[in-house]
Write a structure and sequence with these properties.
This protein has 14 helices and 14 strands. The chain starts with a strand and ends in a 6-residue tail after the last helix. Strands 2-10-9-8-5-3-4 form a seven-stranded mixed beta sheet, sandwiched between helices. The protein has a three-stranded antiparallel beta sheet with strand order 11-14-13, covered by helices on one side. Strands 1-12 form a two-stranded parallel ribbon. The chain folds into two domains: 127 residues, Aspartate Aminotransferase, domain 1, CATH 3.90.1150.10; 241 residues, Aspartate Aminotransferase, domain 2 (3-Layer(aba) Sandwich). It is an alpha/beta fold. Helix 12 crosses helix 13 and helix 13 runs antiparallel to helix 14. A hairpin with an 8-residue loop joins strand 13 and strand 14. The structure holds pyridoxal-5'-phosphate. The site of pyridoxal-5'-phosphate (PLP) has 11 residues, from helix 3.
């Protein structure tokens, strides 16, 4: 038997309690029974987004919520700023260009985080910028961008909204959307929410809702005003992902039982232990100045093809990591800390990497990375 471990930054493992909930019989969605479940899910999402606004639940992957943030607030030829420090930053630009927007880009080397001062300089130069787009955590480079600092800059501009793809930062970082002045934040079920893929979440500030009134870009399925009107009545415009919503209520209950502060701390500890362990093994981390707590990217040693390493880990050892994208393909692997992932999952990941490196001919001292992990974890174990 090859016991499988999913340690990639999405999709992530789903706890048995949630899977059992999803397995319950499908019910009709235009019923009081379903509306009660839907209401619980809607309300349960708000603290994770740090907002008192409605969080809209879409039956889609995260990219649709990214597209929704664009088509609901902007009009053709509007000028926007995309912060592009990786694959998903780049995606903002790709979507926006399809809709005929004028896209300015602040490009960062993969592995670097965005700087609030650069955003401020850009907005001072182009005050007609309607929206600034960013990732909380740029999953392709395992970098966390300084959302609070950038939000503080954007909120100085009355006609500019700040849009955050929080697909791998919601549920990982305490993000105070209302307090910091983020105008749109979105996420996806298959990351920190401990759910399968299929749901996206999006919430808008009043400033962003105001912009929806003048937006002329085409939208039908992703018309958020239509959705909001329905979701305020605890129903949906179109057929919802009924069973995923059952799962969502269960995962939110589990998250509340653990406590959001503890969840953020767990992600931070696993990420710290991973960084220390990989560094102890002599490996170089991908994120330079602001590593994310969602996942850790690491360069494979000279001479080891990361694609082959990742394939070997998945097919022969049973552990799924993610590889690098674009220029980083074959150079890095990415180790997740997202969602239903505990300290011993991190130890498994590090132990597997150590042994795998040995098999691939790298001179590694077995146990050195695991010891570094244990040093971090032991300090956080409950008292006897
Ligand atoms: C930061 C980020 N943005 C966007 C996406 C795209 O989400 P989806 O594949 O659910 O459309 C991902 C998926 O990995 C992501 O990590």
């Amino acid at each position: 038997m090859l016991k499988k471990f999913l340690i990639a930054p999405g999709p992530t493992p789903v706890p048995a309690e949630v899977l059992l909930e999803i397995a319950k019989p499908v019910m009709h969605h235009r019923t009081a029974e379903f509306s009660a479940i839907f209401a619980e899910a809607r309300n349960g999402l708000k603290p994770l987004f740090g907002t008192s606004q409605d969080v809209i639940i879409l039956l889609s992957s995260g990219t649709a919520a990214m597209e929704a943030s664009i088509v609901n607030t902007l009009s053709q030829n509007d000028r926007i700023l995309v912060i592009d420090g990786g694959k998903f930053g780049e995606r903002w630009g790709s979507i926006a260009k399809k809709y005929g927007l004028t896209v300015d880009t602040l490009k960062y080397t993969w592995g670097e985080s965005a700087k609030a001062a650069d955003v401020e300089a850009h907005l001072n130069k182009f005050p007609d910028t309607k929206a600034v787009f960013i990732q909380g955590s740029e999953t392709s480079t395992t970098v966390y961008h300084p959302l609070k600092e950038i939000a503080a800059v954007v909120r100085k501009f009355d006609n500019t909204i700040f849009v955050v793809d929080g697909i791998t930062s919601v549920g990982v970082y305490d993000t105070k959307m209302d307090e910091w002045g983020i105008d749109i934040m979105l996420s996806g079920s298959q990351k920190a929410f401990m759910l399968p893929p299929g749901l996206a979440f999006i919430t808008l500030s009043q400033k962003a809702w105001k912009m929806t009134e003048s937006s002329t870009l085409p939208k039908f399925y992703l018309n958020l005003a239509t959705e909001l009107k329905n979701q305020k009545k605890d129903t949906t415009a179109w057929t919802p992902g009924v069973n995923l919503i059952y799962g969502l209520t269960k995962s939110l209950q589990m998250m509340n039982e653990e406590g959001l502060e503890n969840i953020y701390k767990r992600h931070a500890i696993c990420a710290e232990a991973t960084r220390k362990a990989l560094t102890a093994l002599g490996l170089k981390l991908l994120a330079v100045d602001s590593p994310s707590n969602a996942a850790t990217g690491v360069f494979m040693p000279e001479g080891i093809d990361a694609v082959k390493f990742e394939y070997y880990m998945r097919e022969k050892v049973g552990i799924t990591f993610a590889g690098g994208q674009d220029d980083l393909k074959g150079k890095v692997i990415r180790v997740s800390h997202l969602g239903y992932h505990g300290l011993f999952d991190t130890i498994t990941a590090i132990s597997a990497i150590e042994m795998g490196l040995k098999v691939f001919g790298y001179n590694v001292q077995l146990g050195k990375g695991v010891a570094a992990c244990e040093e971090v974890f032991a300090a956080h174990l409950p008292k006897a």
